Amino acid sequence: MRLQLTFAGGSYDFVRPLAEGTIRPDGIDLVVLSGDPWEFGLTDKNRQNLETLQRYCAQQGIVRKARPLEELFIDAGRVNIPEEI
User: Fold this and answer.
1) If you average pLDDT over residues 38-52, what whole number do you get?
2) DSSP for residue 76
3) Exposed, middle or buried, 59 (CB in 10 Å: 0-12/13-18/19+)?
4) Lowest mean pLDDT among 32-36, 42-46, 75-79
5) pTM of the full predicted structure?
6) Is the CB of residue 54 less than 8 Å from the CB of residue 45?
């Protein structure tokens, strides 16, 4: 039985042979994710992940309740930080 393993890592010299498949770990079927899994900003691509994370935090009592994501992030290009925060 082979272990199914997904790996996400940066494009570093020591990771590149794994990503390119020139080195294959024995007994492991390795899937290497490429690119940045977290886009900058509140986008459709990362909204579901952030909502899920927030829901888990609320269920575990880390935060009091889940809030709309738009309330958690500010548009740094629009905000006068000393006055609005």
Assistant:
1) 80
2) T
3) exposed
4) 75-79
5) 0.47
6) no
